[in-house]
Give the backbone structure.
Amino acid sequence: MRPLRRFDRVSDACSVLAMLLLAASAMPSFADDATPTPNKSGYTLFDPTPDADLRSFNTDGVQTRGWTVFDPTLKLGLTNTIDAELQVTPYESAVTQTAAATTRLAGVGDTFARLKVNLLGDDGGAVALAVLPYVKLPTARAGLGNGKVEGGLILPVSLSAPGGFTVIVMPEADYLKDSAQSGYHGAFDFLVNVSHPLDKRWTVYSEIFTSQSLQTGEPTIYTLDAALTCALTAALQLDLGGNFSLNGVSPRAQLYTGLSQRF
């Protein structure tokens, strides 16, 4: 499972609660039957199959719900322009439901270590630029993570726009484990985020995100994201938001709330 790293990119906040909702289709399974299978090849819409010969009812659905609880990103300023960041997941769970059974997994999630280096605009200005190399440490239990080290490079660019708007453009290159093979593949993410303060405390965000994997057979992800932040104090911020799939490839809805505290 990929971590919800985009949540803290928009508001530079740590997420304390994330809820994922995924609905996807799956092929039905059929059990062997000791009785002979009737020949139904001749039945049509106008000469339907008799009720006694109908297959058992199956909605062909698989539904997975996941929770991530207390998923902080800890940041430590090393210099005026460099931060060391560590994202840990003490607890996450996944519940998968089919017509036949329900499977539950829970435990510690993966850990992400990042280094944020501000190259431009750290103390103000119309343009800000940073580079964030990261590595994923496979601390999650089997079924919650893939058990492999992964990594990548993020390049956020912040631009001041007319009317009080701020535009963030963020390309990302990842080196990820293949889903079915033993090798690795590249992936590229890109987002455009637009934000605007509503007043001195509240700020609203809107974002378009896409992710393209170089692994054969993996479709491109497109999401529309929205967030709202509230400055509770000068050093404490509340975050509310969600990511919503535009093409049905990623989870249909990812909702989260979080707090950011500066010490």
